[in-house]
Write a structure and sequence with these properties.
By secondary structure, the chain is of the alpha/beta class. The chain contains 6 helices and 11 strands. Strand 2, helix 2 and strand 3 form a beta-alpha-beta unit. Helix 1 packs parallel to helix 6. It is globular, with a radius of gyration of 17 Å. The N and C termini lie far apart (38 Å). It binds 5-O-phosphono-beta-D-ribofuranosylamine (GRF). The site of 5-O-phosphono-beta-D-ribofuranosylamine has 12 residues, from helix 1 and strand 5.
C-alpha cells in the first residue's frame, strides 16, 4: 500500500477526483490517509471529512518563518507515515529543505503545458500570446517553481471564443482525469524516482500526453 497525503488550500475538486478514483479502485495501491490544509475554511476539508479521511489544519500565519511552517507540515506527514505527497491547489511556496526531503515523492498539478506558463494567470497569458494549444500538467515537484519533470499532460485546442474563465472551465475536468492517472502510476510503481531521474515503465520518463478533441 502507498500512503498518500493531499495538501490543499481551496475548493479541492482535484482532491475529490482522487477520492472518487480511490473509491472506484483506480488509485492502484494508493490510499489517501490524510488531507492537510493551511486554511481552516478550505472546502477541501469538508470533502475529506465526508470521505472519513483524517484532516490537519496548519496555518502558515502561526509560524514566524516559511521554514518553521514547513517543518510542522513535514512532521504531520511523518506522523501519517506518508509515501506520496500530492499538492492539489496548495497555495504556498515550499522551502527548498522541505522539497528536498520529499524529492521524487511529491507531485503537483499546474494549469498549463509546462514548461510554458509557470506561475499564475496561465489562461489569460495563453490568450494574450495567441497560442493554439493549452492544457494542464502533472509534474514532480522540485525547488524551482513549476519546473520539475512533467509526467502527464492533457492538451486541448484553444477556441477563438475562449476567455480565461472558459479555459479554466474546460481544463478543470482534464485535471481530474490526469491527476488520478499519475497517482495510480506512482502507487503501482510504474512511475518511479531513482537517483534524481524519473522512470516510467522501466524507461526514463517522457511526458505522456492526452489530446482532447474540442467537441
Ligand atoms: C487547479 O486549477 C490546479 O491546477 C491548481 O490549483 C487548482 C486547484 O483547484 N494547482 P481545486 O482546489 O482542486 O479545485
Amino acid at each position: 500500500m502507498k500512503r498518500i497525503a493531499v495538501l490543499v488550500s481551496g475548493s479541492g475538486s482535484n482532491l475529490q477526483a482522487l477520492i472518487d478514483a480511490e473509491l472506484q479502485g483506480q488509485l492502484g495501491k494508493g490510499k489517501i490517509v490524510g488531507v492537510l490544509s493551511n486554511k481552516a475554511n478550505a472546502y477541501a476539508l469538508t470533502r475529506a471529512q465526508q470521505a472519513n479521511i483524517d484532516t490537519a489544519i496548519i496555518s502558515h500565519k502561526n509560524f514566524p518563518t516559511r521554514e518553521s511552517f514547513d517543518q510542522q507540515m513535514h512532521q504531520q506527514l511523518l506522523d501519517w507515515d506518508v509515501d506520496l505527497v500530492v499538492l492539489a491547489g496548495f497555495m504556498r511556496i515550499l522551502s527548498s529543505d522541505f522539497v528536498s526531503q520529499w524529492q521524487g515523492r511529491m507531485l503537483n498539478i499546474h494549469p498549463s503545458l509546462l514548461p510554458h506558463y509557470k506561475g499564475m494567470h496561465t489562461h489569460q497569458r495563453v490568450l494574450n500570446t495567441g497560442d493554439r494549444f493549452h492544457g494542464c500538467t502533472v509534474h514532480f515537484v522540485t525547488a524551482e517553481l513549476d519546473a520539475g519533470q512533467a509526467i502527464i499532460q492533457a492538451v486541448l485546442e484553444v477556441r477563438h471564443s475562449d476567455t480565461a474563465e472558459s479555459l479554466a472551465t474546460r481544463i478543470h475536468p482534464l485535471e481530474h482525469q490526469i491527476y488520478p492517472q499519475a497517482v495510480q502510476w506512482f502507487c503501482n510503481e510504474q512511475l518511479i524516482w531513482c537517483e534524481n531521474q524519473a522512470y516510467f515503465q522501466n524507461k526514463p520518463l517522457q511526458v505522456q500526453q492526452i489530446f482532447c478533441s474540442s467537441d
